[in-house]
Target: GTPase Era
Amino acid sequence: MGAMSVRTQSSEPSGEASHRAGFACFVGRPNAGKSTLTNALVGKKVAITADQPQTTRHTVRGIVHRPDAQLILVDTPGLHKPRTLLGQRLNDVVRTTWAEVDVIGFCLPANEKLGPGDRFIAKELASIKKTPKVAIVTKTDLVDSKQLAEQLIAIDQLGKELGFEWAEIVPVSAVGDKQVGLLADLLVPLLPEGPALYPEGDLTDEPEQVMVAELIREAALEGVRDELPHSIAVVVEEMLPREDRPADRPLLDIHAFVYIERPSQKGIIIGPKGKRLKDVGIKSRKQIEALLGTPVFLDLHVKVAKDWQRDPRQLRKLGF
Ligand SMILES: Nc1nc2c(ncn2[C@@H]2O[C@H](COP(=O)(O)OP(=O)(O)OP(=O)(O)O)[C@@H](O)[C@H]2O)c(=O)[nH]1
Ligand SMILES: [Mg+2]
Model:
């Protein structure tokens, strides 16, 4: 650095500014708040969320750009006891991911006592010696300070029982926007030094077609109960600009299939007189238009892919 160099941002360290870049994955039980936290850190929806477990079905990368670092978050599916081939595949994805990242963020909801599921995950994490592990207590807006303190102690204890130290234990609320920035501040020093890995401005590396399918699935998940959420898969078949439109009034045609597992589920998804499917279309179309910045014509069809969660051929067709 020359003596005459002028810095406009006082927060940058002087001298040889070290830049860090790397990957942090969020793992935890289904519904722990991993995807909501990923979105809060990125500042934009890159992963869909739902109030049902097992929403995320593939790793989603969200990129946080800072002057001192590029923090790439890898949101993973909730780790659970698998009951289907899909469940096994998802768990495999999580284990591959945590073996490859620079930091592991283990998400534990503040409002639920540590359970066998958490211990199971923590035990597996304990065997990954080389990677720093940060315990993230999520959803702190749902508990009082006493309950939070108890949870922090229990998590600290869990690490000790399993013979490792957490690099940090951080309480956050993604919904209440509490300590989300602090979490980023604590993750960055755990990344290796190096230049940015993604172009400035990229918030995710998800293909548009996949994001569109996910937005449709998110809308379809809302309000359905029991087994149905797990039975829904969405595939975008085609996205094409409508021909013969004036340049100032473009329209993007999107054709998508909503897959379910059994013919009996069709009625639930479509609803009386097709009302439910129509609502799903309206809701997701608005989000897709916001994402792509263009008016959209969304054509949704419901199809049965028999027992796709258990069928290797169907899973392959649906991209798992
Ligand atoms: N009150 C509150 N709710 C939250 C917070 N973070 C997440 N949630 C809610 O918890 C539910 C699950 O959130 P997700 O982010 O989808 O959870 P996940 O861990 O990604 O779940 P899977 O993808 O199924 O593993 C949603 O209804 C969220 O709105 C939070 O900070 N406060
Ligand atoms: Mg998720």
